[in-house]
Amino acid sequence: MTELLYLPDADDVTDFEATVVEATEESIVLDGTYFYPEGGGQPADRGTIEWDGGAAAVVDVRKDHGEVHHEIDDVEGDLPAEGETAIGQIDENRREAHRRMHTAQHILSRVVLGAFDATTAGNQIHADCSRIDFEPADFDDADLELIEERTNEVIERDLRVNKDERPRETVEETVAEGRSNLSLLPDHVEELRVVEIDDFDMCPCGGTHVDRTGEIGPIEITNRLSKGAEVERIEFEFRED
To answer: How far is Cα 115 from Cα 135, in angstroms, rounded to an integer?
Structure first.
């Protein structure tokens, strides 16, 4: 098992040391990592791993039965041996963009749930733009203006973003209806990582997030698409002022 060192609230760390568990020409497994593996609509981190006499670019990160595989390319030198110390360096700009985008997605999803009683059916985070699918939904231009305005109001309030682990039972009792799919989680999962935006929103999530909403900056809704009966997709990006 690879320890996910960025949980519950160390997702601002972008360089670290760890011990090599396994190294092949395709990937490196460490005993612990701050690299985020793809999941929950958020892409994997990119970066580098260095060791004595060698280095490699990390081009993808994925979980496989509890192990995190750092897929590598452009390998320099011999592969590291089991037990050797390695230094991980995450692409800081990419990580920060994902943190900002993911928290913005939580805010926008909560705004839509509160204003239109539409739940988040799916989402995809990117460093430069993101999308969220809502249902049931049928937005018009005025609705989009309202959603953008209210989302930016929450961002500007610079609310604290708390990230911690809580008992599943507690989360089930307190999470707002429509803000989670806890029924999809296996029954044996008893502790959940939760992202709470002060008194505005609380949602189980394993992704990376900012520490305060003011770090996000204003967002702009750029497109709306119909994705089927009562399913609407909203696309957004950071607004360049």
So the answer is: 13
SS3 of 114, please?
helix
- How many Cβ atoms from other residues are within 10 Å of residue 105's Cβ? 27
Q: Is 142 helix (H, G, I), strand (E, B) or coil?
A: helix
State percent of the chain over pLDDT 90.
92
**How many whole angstroms separate alpha carbon 179 and alpha carbon 195?**
11
Cα Rg, the chain, nearest whole Å:
19
The encoded tokens of residue 223 equal 């497109």
Bridge partners of 17, per DSSP, are 87
Q: Alpha-carbon distance 112 to 92, whole Å?
A: 30
Coil, strand, or helix at residue 147?
helix
Sequential DSSP letters for 60-72: EEEEETTEEEEEE
What angle separates helix 141-156 from helix 92-116, to the nearest 10 degrees?
A: 120
Cβ proximity of 68 and 35 under 8 Å: yes
For 26, the token pair is: 């395709």
Q: For residues 192 and 164, is the Cβ–Cβ distance under 8 A?
A: no
Tokens of 20: 């090599």
Question: Rounded to an integer, what distance in angstroms lies between the CA atom of residue 206 and that of residue 110?
Answer: 17
Q: Encode 72-137 in three state secondary structure.
A: EEEEECCCCCCCCEEEEEECHHHHHHHHHHHHHHHHHHHHHHHHHCCEEEEEECCCCCEEEEEECC
Chain position carrying tokens 């995190």:
68
Residue 171 in tokens: 């989360």
Closest residue by Cα to residue 236 from 118, 175, 155: 155
| Residues 66-114 pLDDT 10s | 999 999 999 999 999 999 999 999 999 999 999 999 999 999 999 999 9
